[in-house]
Amino acid sequence: MLEFNFILSQIFAGIAFLCDLASFQFKKKERILLFFTISAGCLCAHYFLLNSTISGVLIAISTVRFFTARVLPDPRLAWVFTVISLIAAYLTYVDAASFVPLIASIIVNFASFQKSDRMLRQLMMIGTCLWIANTIILKSPVGAFTEIAFLLSNFIGYYRHYLTKRVLTP
To answer: By three-state DSSP, how is residue 153 classified?
Structure first.
């Protein structure tokens, strides 16, 4: 059963990978957050199948957060989701490695409620680096690959939407 769960977790991470690749290629924050919601749902299943309760719970909260930020972009809600994440982390704490997904989740909380997609992208780069570390700790190759691809997609989107305009503008 453990082997089946691992394979299924990697399939969910692969679906998240596809959503992540697409997400940052959009300019509109609402479209980015829609793809984040779908990806987070898949990653939630991925982490629960790997028996990482804290990561699964924090990503489940992320799924709700991304959806909420899309329909109700009030920056004060980042604090609400931060408190919920802190409570979830306290209830599911295992060891010091539990702080990695918690800190990542808190950074992404604030990224999700940014008014501009530019700041959203910048904060997501930081949070994603911590999620990469988390997947490496959990020994999830597809999870790590997905998060790395997410980071690269973010860099490419950021470059396309912000850095090329500086180069092309005299």
So the answer is: helix
